[in-house]
Amino acid sequence: DGGITQSPKYLFRKEGQNVTLSCEQNLNHDAMYWYRQDPGQGLRLIYYSQIVNDFQKGDIAEGYSVSREKKESFPLTVTSAQKNPTAFYLCASRIQGRSNQPQHFGDGTRLSIL
Amino acid sequence: QQPVQSPQAVILREGEDAVINCSSSKALYSVHWYRQKHGEAPVFLMILLKGGEQKGHEKISASFNEKKQQSSLYLTASQLSYSGTYFCGTDISGNTGKLIFGQGTTLQVKP
To answer: Closest by alpha carbon to B49, among B26, B34, B33, B25?
Structure first.
């Protein structure tokens, strides 16, 4: 079955440490997205990519970085510059170029500070 | 730019109806509706495209008023499984697929 796999499910970060969240999809989708969700809040866009080797900043990109070297993979690195990283992180993908296509979400990674 | 959802929270008894509204200050290409259970990923419900269409999905339907830049989600004869947080995602770009999500409406259905 096709889908989006995020790993790990839970992640703990020490102060000053960079951590990387994995997102892999086998849906053959061109577009991929990273969101951050804080308790009781909506989803805020961190980064998105419409094609391999290209990505754009979303609304809250500071303290995060991404890469898109393969169509299937869109890892997110939470750097030490992100001072408040505790949140639920969701990765999504969709078929590019058609406005009637939904975003499909992974099961998320919950990141906490040690 | 974030759309405003109302109400913020609603409590229903099984079988009752509810309406959740989503209002944007920007012109919209489409509105996407999702439901999220606590600690889980959002689940897609439906997309409303420009043209003011109304769509249905079992007992859940939605409308989109392009001129007013508003969408409403209608839940009829609610079931316990409808409990969760409902988000609208608005597409203001038309080509990136980028969505701006509202803050969510928490729905609790009681027996």
So the answer is: B33
Question: Which residues of chain B make contact with A56, given a CB cutoff of 8 A?
Answer: 96
What is the pLDDT tens value at each position of chain B, 111 positions in all?
899 999 999 999 999 999 999 999 998 889 999 999 988 999 999 999 887 666 666 789 999 998 899 999 999 999 999 999 999 999 988 777 889 999 999 999 999
To the nearest 10°, report the CA torsion of B75, B81, B87, B88.
-40
Which H or E run contains A73? none
Quote the tokens at residue A69: 């070297």
**Residues of B within an 8 Å Cβ radius of A:** 2, 29-30, 32, 39-44, 47, 49, 87, 89, 91, 94-104
Q: By the 8 A CB rule, do B1 and B102 touch?
A: no
